[in-house]
Amino acid sequence: MASDTLPQIQDGRLGIAPPGSILSYLVSPVDGFFVDAILECEMNFAAKWNSVEILTGSPVTDKLVPPGIYALHLSVAFVSEQVVDVTMDFSLTPPPGAGATATDQLVFSGKLGDVGRGLILFKIA
How far apart are CA 54 and CA 37, in angstroms? Predict the structure, then answer.
């Protein structure tokens, strides 16, 4: 039987940065959930990461060169009987001298049967 709870949906924005900027995100490496991520640029596939690559305790990074509107989609599936809190920190760091780093954070909380979707938007121009 499916869970009666609605999916958690959250979004964030990292603004505009020049080509060569670095997208970085860190997902709290706690037990009790899986997370997958897909990055797209102008509705075209750019990169994909699965839980094994994301939940290492180190940030996932990607240098972004092609200009366009980017969307990072994250999918969280909770598998613990106990409530688990998941914190996701995001940053977009321009090349040296090209501006300040933009940051945002998403937080999900759930247990077995709960799911969440996150969306981080930004532009490389």
Answer: 8
Cβ atoms of 14 and 122 closer than 8 Å: yes
Q: Nearest 5°: phi and psi at 54? A: -85, -40
Question: Model-level pTM?
Answer: 0.93
- Six token digits for residue 111: 């247990």
Virtual torsion, Cα 86, 58, 49, 68, nearest 10 deg: 100
Burial code (b: 16+ CB inside 10 Å, e: under 16) for 104-118 equals: bebebebbeebbbeb
* pLDDT for the residue 5: 74
Sort strands 21-27 and 84-93 into parallel, antiparallel or unpaired: antiparallel
Cβ atoms 89, 46 nearer than 8 A? no
Residue with tokens 């990169």: 47
What φ, ψ does residue 96 adopt, rounded to 5°? -50, 135
Whole-number percent of the chain with pLDDT over 70: 97
User: Please, what are the domains in the chain?
Assistant: 8-124 (2.60.40)
Pairing of strands 115-124, 8-17: parallel
